[in-house]
What does this fold into?
Amino acid sequence: MNNRLYVGNLAYSMRDESLQQQFSQFGAVNSAKVMMERDTGRSKGFGFVEMGSDAEAQAAIDGLNGKSVEGRAMTVNVARPMEPRTGGDRGGYRGGRY
It folds into this structure.
C-alpha cells in the first residue's frame, strides 16, 4: 500500500491545519495540503495527506472515508500517481495554407 492519501469533497473553508488535525487522530501526519486555486486563493475542495506508515494510512481511510466534516462527507483513499495529460493544441503545425 501507499501512505499518501487523496482527500476529496472537502468543505471550501478547510485549510492545511484543520486537515492535519482530522488525520492526526489516526497516527503521524507527515504532511497535509489542501489544493488552492492559484488566482482566487479559494480551496479546490480536495487535498493530499501523507501518513507516517501504511497502517496509519489504512486506519485513516477506515475512520474518515464517508465521515461528515463541516457538512460534507469526505472521500479518503490511496492517492494514485498523476497521469500525463493528453490532447490539447499547444502549438506546432495546425494545417492550413501559408
